Each structure stands twice: as C-alpha cells, then as structure tokens.
Amino acid sequence: MACPQFLTDLENSGLLHCYGKAGRQQENILSDYKKNNIETLVTDRPPCKSAYAHNRTVNENNIINITLLPDTPAADINNNRIGELFTLCVLNAQSLNNKAAQFIDYVVDCKADIVSLTETWFTSTESATRVLCTPNGYNLLDHPRSNRVGGEYYCQKLAAGELRSFEYSEWSVVNGSCRLHLIIVYRPPYSDAHPVTTSVFFSEFTNFLESITLSNDPLLITGDFNIHVDCTDNLDSIKFLDLLESTGLKQHVRGATHCSGHTLDLIITKQTDNIITSIPRIDHLFSDHNAVLCNLESNAVPLTQKHISFRKLKSVNIEALKEEISSSDLCKNPPSKLIDLVSCYNNTLMTALNHQAPLISKTITTRPAVPWYNDEIKCAKRLRRKAGRKWRRTKLPTDFLAFKTAKNHTTFLMNQARQNFYRQFISENIQDQKKLFRATKGLFRHDSDLAFPHYNDSNALSNDLGQFFAQKIINIRSELDTASTYEQAVFSDMPSVSLNSDQIYQEFFPMSDDDTERLITLSNKKSSSLDPIPTKLVVECLDVLLPVITKMINLSLESGIFPCVWKEADVQPRLKKQGLEVIFENLRPISNLPYVSKLVERTVCNQSHNHLSLHHLYPGNQSAYREFHSTETALLRVKNDILMNMNRQHVTLVVLLDLSAAFDTVDHVLLLQRLQLKFGLSGTVLKWFTSYLSQRTQRVTVGDVSSEKFNVDCGVPQGSCLGPLLFVLYVSELLELIERHLPDAHAYADDTQLYISFRADSRIDQETAVRTVEMCIDDIKRWILANRLKLNEGKTEVILIGRGNNSKKSTSTIFVLAAMLLLVLRTPRTSAAGLTRR
C-alpha cells in the first residue's frame, strides 16, 4: 500500500503516469486516489474453528529430513550458468579444414553445450586440423567416413555406420541426471557421385527408425537430410513428414536453413518427449547452411571449476630467502649423517618458502576463450550481423552480396589475427625452446588433464589408479615367476663373462662444488610435488645451497646409501597414445622424483657410463639412452642393412618384437647379479645400487589429490635417468642370444628388430631363413620368461621387404612361411609345470 505523500513525490519527479477511462482526466484519478486512501487494519488471527484442533499432536512418521545444500557464493552461481538451458547447435559445415578460426569463434560466441556437425570433411589422418577446430573447454569426438571426406561428432559413441542412402552416428549424452539418445544423420543429395534415389532412403530410414524409436531415453535426431520439408507440395517432403508422423516423431525446425531458401537441417524428437523448450532459431550463415540453435529441457553444462593451490613465486624476495637459509642450521651447523642432512634440507627450505611465499588456495572458473580475439574482429562481426539482418529482411541479391562480402572480411580478419598471434608468440620466444615446445604441444594436443566420467571422488580415483598399476605388475610377476622356474635352467649354458681387475668398478669419485654447479646447469629444472622448494628458487639460491647439495651427493656416493625419502615416486598417469579412451588400461605411469635425488642419479649415471664406455661393456647393437645413439641411428642401421640386401638381389624378413610393461617387471635380484658378474660393479658401487632398488614406493596423483603409498618390489623408474640405463644392461644378454642365430639384429630399449636376408627365387633359402628365425624366436621366448619379462604378442609383427621384381619372382610359399612364423610368435608356450602363457 502506498501513502499519498509517496505518490505525490513520484508524480513530481515524472516517474508516475496514470491512465484512466476515455473522457476522464489523469489528474482526477490521482487526486481521487489520494483522497480515498484505504485504511490498513491489523488484527489477531482468529482461532481455529475445528473442534478437534486441541486434540492434534505431532506424527513423527510425517516428518521428512531435508538435506540442505551447501552455501554457494554468488560469484560461483554466475560463473556456473545456473538457470541457463542446455543449448544444442546443428550445423552443416561444408568443410572445417579452412574454417577453424571462424568455427571456434562461433561456438564460443553462441555458448553451445553440444555441437552436431555434418560434412566436416575430416579424414582419419587430419589430427592437427581436429585439434585446431576444437575450442578450449570442448572435446572433439567424431566418426570419419571410411572412403571419402566427411563425418559427424559428439559424446559417447553407441554406434555408427553407412547405409546406401545416408550416414549416421549414435551418441549417448549424459548431463547430470538427464540422458539423451542423440543421432546425427547426413543424407547426400542425388548426384552422379551418389546415384541413390529418395525411395531407397525412405526404405532404409524406415527400417532404421523401427530400431531406434524403441529406446526409453529421450530421442533427438539431427542433421542434414537434403529434403525440402518447407515445400508443402513436394512429394518427397510429404512422404518424409508422413513417415515421421507414423513413427511418432515430430520435426521442429521452421524457416530456411540453406541459402537457397529451403529447410534442410532438421531437429526431430518423439511426439511424447518434451525436451525442446522452444522453436529452434535459425542463426548465423556459417557455410551455405545456417546454424540452427535450440534449447533442451536440461540445465546448461556448468563451467569447469578448479580448486588450485599456488604460491606467488615472482614476489619472492630472493635476498631475504638467501638470508633465512644461510642463517639456519642447514648452513651453519649441517648434520654429518646423510639421512639427517636430507631431512634438515627439506624442512629448512619448506619453512623458508612458507615464510616468503605462503600457499594460497583459490577456486577458478575455466571459460572457453579465443586468445586472438580483438576489437577489429568485434566490429567486423557487428557489421556482418547488420548485413545479414538486412538481407534476410529484403531478400535482394545486392544485399546478399553485401552480406557475403562482410562475412568473408570477418573470416579473413579472424585467420589473420590467429596467424599473427602465434607468429608473434614464436618470435618473442624463439630462444626459449622449452616454452615453444609447450606451446606447440598445447596447439596440437588436447589438454593433459584426464577426465574420468565415472568418478566424482578424487581420492577414490587416485587410490584405484594406484591399486591398478600395482596389481597389474603383481599379476604379471605372478605368471612370470611360475613360468620362469623351468626356463631358468635352460640358460645355464650362457657363456660367463670374465672380467679383469681393471674392469672392476668399486667406488664412485667424489664431486666438487664446480662439478655440482656444472651438473645443475646442464640438468632439467623440472620440479616435483616431492620437492620442498621449486627448482627455480634452488638455482637462484645456488650460491648458498651449492655446498649443501654437494655434501648430500658425496655422502650418498661414499656411504652407498640412497635415502628412502628419495625413493618415493609421484606417479602422473598419461595416455599411451593421444586419442585413446580414458580408461585405466590405456594409461602409462610416469614417475616424478625429487630434484636432489635426480642430481645424485645423474652423477651415478655419468660415472657408470664412463666405466661402461671405457671398458667397452655396452651391448653393441643397442641404440637407446646414451650419447650419439638414438632412434635415428637405429633406423639408419636397419635401413642401411635392408638396402644393402636389396643391392644383392635379396629380400629381407624382418621381425619386430615388443615387450609388455618391460621397465616395470625387471627383477632386482637378477639385475644386481648381472651388474656384478657382467659389468664389474662391486664394493660401494654395488651397495649403492642395491640401496637404490630396494624399498621403493610410489603414489599416484590426479589433479591435486594423491593416493596412498604402494610398494614397488620390481622394475626400474621410467622418470629417472638411471632407470633406462639399468634396463639396457638388464636385457644386454638378449642381443648376445640373438647373435647365436642371426647375423643382423638391432634394438632400441625394449623394441628389438630381427632380420635375415635370402634369395627370393630359392625355395631352400626361404625355408632355411624362416626356420632360423623360428629357432631364434623360440630361444628369445624362453629367455624372456627366464628373466621375468613378458613378450607383447599383440605388437609383434613380421614384414617382408624387397624390390618389386624380386617380389614377383618369389612364390606364395614365403608368405605362407611368414604367416606360420607369426603364428609361432603368438602361440601360447607351455612350461614343464603346465602353465599356459597368454
């Protein structure tokens, strides 16, 4: 109720306007309202009239416990798009290969939660183009055509296929508690390249609908059907709409979606599903098709929020940090024992870092963004929209030409801005190769963050991952331990190595401060979560910390002890190959280790390398993990041998062997025996390696959450410099075994190539070569079992290489023999104990 004075104030300020009946003045209405003010009455509530009111009591069975939602800050509500509806975009792209900048800008602009694309013209080999067309915050999932360009994309794939008249892909979309059965369809128009009539399409599409309309989930069919459903007198249109109605479906798009003025891009749902909240709207003319937007009966996908912890390292006062470290017991009175010194180092640096740069926790929201967007593009887009509205209103050819000109100019500006952005970035960081590498990896690879859709609890995820990695090795070792009992005795005839006194390696050389400084300068400055302080600050405070680091290294070398705190690995799961499904089986554990421990490892690795090189103890045909040896040298050696065989009119039979989880199953006892007997390690050196390999642990980190610790009783760490060297020494006997049978073989880490050449026109040479390789592989399989390794039969390949004229001379016999050889490789081997290897 408003008081008269309040109404007068509103009237005087011009904010109040009164409109009455015809013939009556406004002033009279207002004056009458002021005079005839209604009096407000305040009374007590009357008593209940029910005669049974006084007998009522509380029935506790009717009480419901209400769970209150946690308070959400206002900023989070705004950032998470609460109240917005789920937005679907349907678009025929007519090739995305040259529209990456335009597509990314449009998706970010329209805030689509899911995009249904047809005619992307992607092929299975265009991985870079796919990444360039994926905006930040989105994932690209597609189904390329098998024999020509094109495809559709998004979500968890259920099925995909190509019929004579149309292509389709099925996806299951899950957004919270809402599920959606999404089907993307593309029907090519009739042409010489696709001479399929609409009658074939109606027949195939009818059968297709019979199978999908039985789904219990809400159904949404989108795509380009190339049928003019807007033409009421078109026979194909009438037949298509009758088909939809007879199957209980409804088409929602109204208006032209093609520049020719017809409706080709459709959105179809069940008549009983109310998932479309409003009529789909025709949006931007992206190609010769308009994008179609509609809202679904579901909340919009919330923006990704991350809880991060960080320190403001740039604001650290280096001089104050040095002063605090130099005045501590670490520098003034350092412990004499290694374990105590390492503990003092970690505690002192962590305390100093907390004083200078305390840990800050914050929640951030990740939004899709276009980094090269500028004001010129913004202005051009405004003019493009204006020209588009005018053309849609007038339908004049001149206005359409003006719109196309504005559209092409905007696309040109976007492509130019994107190129200039990355060109400037490269020119500014031309001397920083690491930064350029990280930027390139970000451009052509998806985000390294792994999304596990079935996990909401990060603690459970990290622990399950840690248990999976540990149990995987336990299962493999359990099989290998049983199978290798018999095989161990088979290789008792392997020749022993006799070493002279000069080849015995008993003690490490101590490090000077200059040696340590040189080591740090050449080393990778990567930090680990296990480090007490970022490596960057260690380098900046090196004049204070250098004597302490040198002392820790020398104490470890002198005592033959590798402290347990250095044996804990922080494991980061990474996909074995980009594009694989994010499941545990497709992940590889990468170990991150403390920085000082890696300096000690590098010292031991360098000194051990000098010993092995000086006495020529390295395996000759192994190209991994040492200077002047690489994948290039391995490929060069194998290619050169094959070309030389071709010059002799020979063909080459190549067998590619691969080991499964090779680094993780190395037996520590066998490794230490091999280091002592074959490579001359003894005394303090052997004691150090024994300490290094024993009592190792690891924990898996996903995001900011780490799992519990898991014991590592076998294997060598892949994230260290010493682990690969130890693996090469462990499998050195394998190449010696191969040399018993074959003159040519080469290896890079756990990948081994066996090859033998022979005359293609000689049946005897063919059979002899295959029989020789078969005997060699049989011994290899036995040696692998004896050394508790596992052959990866799935990645083992047999290749026959030769000139064309030699291939014509050869009969089918060699191919049959090669197939039999591959069968031998993949045949389970039964040991005397009766265990069948798989």
Automatic annotation (TrEMBL):
GO terms for molecular function: catalytic activity. InterPro entries: DNA/RNA_pol_sf (IPR043502), Endo/exonu/phosph_ase_sf (IPR036691), Endo/exonuclease/phosphatase (IPR005135), RT_dom (IPR000477). This is Uncharacterized protein. It comes from the Eukaryota. Pfam families: Exo_endo_phos, RVT_1.
